[in-house]
Fold this sequence. Notes:
Blueprint: E1 2-5, E2 8-11, E3 15-22, E4 25-27, H1 32-49, E5 53-56, E6 65-67, H2 70-77, E7 85-88, E8 91-92, H3 98-111, E9 118-121, H4 126-131, H5 138-153, E10 158-162, E11 165-170, E12 182-185, H6 189-198, E13 201-203, H7 210-226, E14 236-243, H8 247-268, H9 284-287, E15 294-296, H10 298-312, E16 316-320, H11 328-346, E17 349-350
Parallel strand pairs: 3-5, 3-16, 3-17, 5-7, 8-9, 9-12, 12-13, 14-15, 14-16
Antiparallel strand pairs: 1-2, 4-6, 10-11
Amino acid sequence: MLVRVGQEVQEVPRSLRLGLFLAAQYPAGEDAAAGIADHVEQVALARELGFSSVMAGQHFLSDPYAMAQPIPLLARIAAEAEGMAIGPGILLLPLLNPLAVAEEIATLDAITGGRAILGVGIGYRAVELAGFGVRDKPAKVFEAKLDVVRRLLAGEAVTASGPGYELDAARLTLLPQGDVPVWVAANRDVAVRRAARVGDAWLMNPHTTLDELARQAGVLADARAEAGLAPIEEQPALREVCVAPTDEEAMLVAQRHLQGKYASYVEWGQSDVLPDGDTLRRAWEELTQGGRFIIGSPATCGRLIAEHAERAGITHLVCRAQWPGMEQEHVLRSLRLLVEEALPASGLTLEGPAPARAA
């Protein structure tokens, strides 16, 4: 089937890659080592089920949760994820040293045999920006640092300076196997246009309704065309996913943990950077409407997955299937039901991991 996305006509995806997003956030006082052990088990199951990728996010000063940082966590996870793409989703690039980011991603690429992904974004929390002394416009800092990271990973000798770094013909000696795909996270239209211009893909966020994702897919396509860039080859989306035998049970399981997570998002300011007209300041029943989350029975989740593919062109669904305090048994069951029942109900076939990039 052909659909119009922005000014372009595109083929609706008939297959789908699945990714596992490790939230790596734990209620304060809980044993983080036990949480990481749970992630190891989740990744082993995801690999067995045919998932294509593993990602982990980044926050600092993440009260009320304790949070593991993504690069060391993913390096540990790589041992369980052979053949899967691995990467941060996302690094808060304005806060970080671009030389360190490039070196760490090159290392992660070597660990994974040429399967690293680099997910980056600007962030939105004032406490994080202040904690790292980012006083300039974060979007400006982001673009400058991303340019440095890309050039270093490409093997260039880079001369550049900015907040916290000064490079004089700096060149990496450990390089990745070919071009590491850069996925740029974005919420508002101006940020989606930036992602179209500076990224290899836009990493759709987990907070926005499906209507907004579908509309912004058109914004992305138009921005790529206006910049003279080819359409993106892969459309990843990070979404909240909970599959249970019935809609009622799935909603009950998700509400116990996801409702508190989204209350924290409101306190952190995430609601304030959503597309105009949307807000996370909603009652639970209203928050779950509009395809914002993929929660329900296998039949319900299959329908929602098909709608994401048809309306927003999603080809790589990165699933966050656990939230702080959620029991491991529910996570593992959800992953199994997703692959064994929900995906077949969607009419889409599971596409396996892409081969490693050539050295």
